[in-house]
Amino acid sequence: MKHTSHSEYLPISSVFIKTAKAAFISEQKLNNEWEALNYISRPNFKASRIEYQNFESLLKKEGAAVRYFQEDGNLSIDSIYCRDASIATDHGMILCHMGKAARTGEPKAQKDDFLAHGIPILGTIKAPATLEGGDVAWVDPNTLAVGHSYRTNEEGIYQLEQLLTPYGISILVVDLPHYKGTTDVFHLMSIFSPVDKDMAVVYSPLMPISFRKELKKRDFAFVEVPDAEFESMGCNVLAIAPRKCLMVAGNPMTENALKKAGCEVLTYPGLEISVKGGGGPTCLTRPVMRRL
Fold it and tell me: In this structure, are residues 208 and 174 in contact, taking their beta carbons and an 8 Å threshold?
């Protein structure tokens, strides 16, 4: 029986999430951690839970079977951004090795939850490698784009390639820019969100030219995010199904561009759970199964 799949745009049938309540845990934990983890400001504990309940209800309304990563006081509040700790493939989950030191415990915690639900593990990325799920996006069934960033190093890419090559999957390395430096949360999916087999939401000013050319060669259409909506998570868009998108509210130009491109768009208020921590809907979810 198939338990996992590696598409970014097919209809989500099963997804893991880490609720704001389970990740933030308490006012004291937020007070202790938000600044050191480079949040732009402290999330409001009560408001974050309300925002997250709305986000969770949208996933359920779309028919996704929602499963939960468990509360663990040993993990940081960043564990709300659960995509980063693992990668879904047709052959099982790959557990990452986090490039952000405060997040090193997350892959092991996710492994326990995956195994408890009977979800197989294909492999584990091990030190000195670093690899984060936000730097990984499927371009097609046989091509995985991987950002070479401050969170994902050459050894991480090499180990990932060793796991996937036996299945005929090739790695497309994307060298990401310095942008705001080593402490910033800047992943491949900060600038590239596939919403169909041949369409992606992109922020071109920070896209490497070689990657942009490769996508154009593969006949991708681009929905361009304007400068004014990059920091507000305009480029972080989750495909619930082909051209059916979930994004943070407050990005009207990107939302309208998506609609003009034939996409249906759902939004959620995300100031507390997304904007302050730099993680949109792709970051907040770990889809494990999508329907053909």
Answer: yes
Tokens 């969770």, residue located: 56
Q: Order of strands, edge to edge, in the sheet holding 121-124?
A: 86-89, 92-95, 121-124
Please spell the DSSP secondary structure of 83-128, one letter per residue.
GGGEEEETTEEEE-B-SSGGGTTHHHHHHHHHHHTT--EEEE--TT
Residue 150 φ/ψ, nearest 5 degrees: -75, -10
Q: Which residues contact 135 (CB under 8 A, 6 or more apart)?
A: 146, 147, 148, 149, 151, 152, 176, 187, 188, 189
Q: CB within 8 A of 122, min separation 6: which ones?
A: 89, 91, 92, 93, 94, 163
Buried b (16+ CB within 10 A) or exposed e, 180-191: eeeeebbbbbbb
| Mean pLDDT across 165-191 | 92
Pairing of the two strands 221-224 and 264-268: unpaired
- Distance (Å, whole) CA 75 – CA 80: 10
Q: Is residue 184 scored above 90 in pLDDT? A: no
Give the model confidence (pLDDT) of 18-33 as tens digits: 999 999 999 999 999 9
The separation between the first and the last C-alpha atoms of the chain, rounded to the nearest angstrom, is: 15
Q: Enumerate the β-bridge partners of residue 193.
A: 201
Tokens of 92: 């099982």
> Exposure pattern of 3-25 as b/e (b: 16+ CB <10 Å)?
bbbbbbbbbbebbbbbbbebbbb
- Mean pLDDT of all residues belonging to the chain: 96
Distance (Å, whole) CA 89 – CA 114:
13
Distance CA 41, CA 176 (A): 26
- Closest to 288 (Cα-Cα) out of 58, 50, 48, 59: 59
